[in-house]
Design a protein that fits this description.
Elements (H helix, E strand, L loop, with lengths): L1 E3 L11 E2 L8 E5 L6 E9 L4 E7 L3 E9 L3 E4 L10 E7 L2 E7 L4 E9 L1 H7 L8 H9 L3 E2 L5 E2 L2 H11 L5 H28 L8 H16 L7 H8 L3 H12 L3 H19 L4 H7 L5 H12 L7
Parallel strand pairs: 1-5
Antiparallel strand pairs: 2-3, 3-4, 4-10, 5-9, 6-8, 6-10, 7-9, 8-11, 8-12
């Protein structure tokens, strides 16, 4: 099946469609749509080996957040085969994305498509934060902010969750989403600056990069009882020194701080639910005592957990 999606000039609206036929078991797409951006939160499941594609008419900036996708390609932009929990910012004068998905596999992603006017409104054309990327956009050359899709950071994951949980309606929702889009762009540009200062962070060979991504996945799945750096090195067969330095270069944070970030965001969600005591939350978040947890929480958020 093919579907064309165009950047709308209409007002903000939401709708969802589900399609079932011989080649697709379920297709879900929720689209907050405004005059200058298109947001796609997509989950696709196929009964058989199938293709899915969409096009965008006219040049645009695309922010891709791939939670899970086995195999895909882009026409007019660079892409990568390892796309689980990764993201990138792309520009294309004629965006055409194809997905080749195996039987029974799920593709889960969020794509935010911006008009050039909105992009340069949020990030000025002459900003030094993105001069090379900006110049290529103005020349109409298809390009990517990063050479390949890079892994999610806790900060980016937090903003994506904020977008998913947005409860505003109408004009308030449009303003809220535009602010969140700008926040995501700034986080991307922060990482971009970090990569420029640490060029070796993007020159790992394919085998070591896969090991680094596996290390991140292990931490994502086991941050409560996270392995030590030495244990993580043994689990991924990646030299401990290289693991430590390349993790910081690629993800903008140390292994230790990455674990703390995951624990703090998990703890904050538990606090917001309001069903457990702070002591119980401290234990569930991987801390042995309330004092240790409270100190870490205040250092991370600037306020003690009892203030939330």
């Amino acid at each position: 099946m093919k579907r064309r999606l165009w950047v709308s000039e209409g007002w903000l609206e939401d709708y969802q469609f589900n399609i079932i036929n011989k080649t697709e078991s379920c297709l879900k797409c929720t689209k907050p749509l405004s005059r200058s951006f298109l947001m796609l939160d997509i989950e696709i499941f196929f009964e058989k080996n199938s293709n899915y594609s969409f096009k965008v008419g006219g040049d645009c900036i695309i922010m891709e957040f791939i939670y899970k996708c086995s195999n895909e390609e882009a026409i007019g932009v660079k892409t990568s085969n390892n796309l689980t929990n990764t993201h990138n910012v792309l520009y294309s004068p004629a965006y055409h994305r194809k997905f080749r998905l195996p039987e029974g596999d799920i593709a889960d992603m969020m794509t935010i498509i911006l008009s050039k006017n909105l992009y340069f409104k949020l990030i000025p054309k002459n900003s030094n934060l993105h001069s090379e990327f900006s110049n290529k956009i103005r020349k109409g050359e298809a390009c990517c902010l990063f050479d390949t899709h890079i892994a999610f950071t806790p900060s980016i994951q937090a903003v994506l969750k904020d977008i998913e949980k947005c409860s505003y309606e109408g004009e308030l929702k449009r303003l809220y989403l535009e602010n969140k889009i700008q926040e995501l762009l700034l986080l991307h540009l922060e990482l971009y600056q970090h990569y420029n200062l640490n060029p070796k962070g993007s020159t790992m060979d394919k085998e070591d990069l896969e090991k680094l991504m596996e290390a991140k996945k292990i931490l994502d799945d086991n941050f409560i009882n996270a392995p030590t750096l030495k244990e993580l090195s043994r689990m991924t067969y990646l030299n401990e020194f290289k693991l430590k330095n390349e993790f910081k270069a690629h993800f903008g944070t140390s292994v230790k701080q990455y674990i703390i970030g995951l624990r703090m965001k998990y703890a904050l969600e538990l606090i917001k639910e309001g069903e457990l005591s702070i002591t119980e939350i401290a234990h569930l978040s991987g801390y042995n005592g309330l004092v240790q947890f409270s100190t870490a929480f205040k250092r991370y958020y600037g306020v003690p957990p009892t203030r939330i």
